[in-house]
Automatic annotation (TrEMBL):
InterPro entries: Annexin_repeat, Annexin_sf
Record flagged with keyword Magnesium: no
GO molecular function: calcium ion binding; calcium-dependent phospholipid binding
UniProt-recorded name of the protein: Uncharacterized protein
Coiled-coil regions listed: none
Key words of the record: Annexin, Repeat
Family the entry assigns: Belongs to the annexin family.
Organism annotation: Arion vulgaris
Gene behind the chain: ORF2184
Length: 76
């Protein structure tokens, strides 16, 4: 008998949160590349979020972009 690992199913709320994090990362990437107005995007994606949410966004950005969010924003 084969041993199959049971994948953890994401709830709809978790999927929505993940999609929002990905969208936030895209917006932050545009800010870092001077393609979007920084004030509006930063308020929408970081300032109104909890510390835990900001850390998850930072981790997702680093995973998706292969770069450090803080360093990119400082450069941009």
């Amino acid at each position: 008998a084969k041993n199959y690992k049971k994948e953890k199913e994401m709830t709809d709320a978790q999927k929505l949160a993940e999609m929002r994090r990905i969208n936030d990362c895209i917006q932050l990437f545009k800010v870092a590349r001077d393609e979007a107005p920084p004030h509006t995007v930063i308020i929408k994606t970081l300032a109104k979020k909890s510390f835990k949410q900001r850390m998850k966004t930072k981790e997702k950005y680093n995973d998706l972009c292969g770069q450090d969010l803080e360093q990119d924003l400082k450069k941009g």
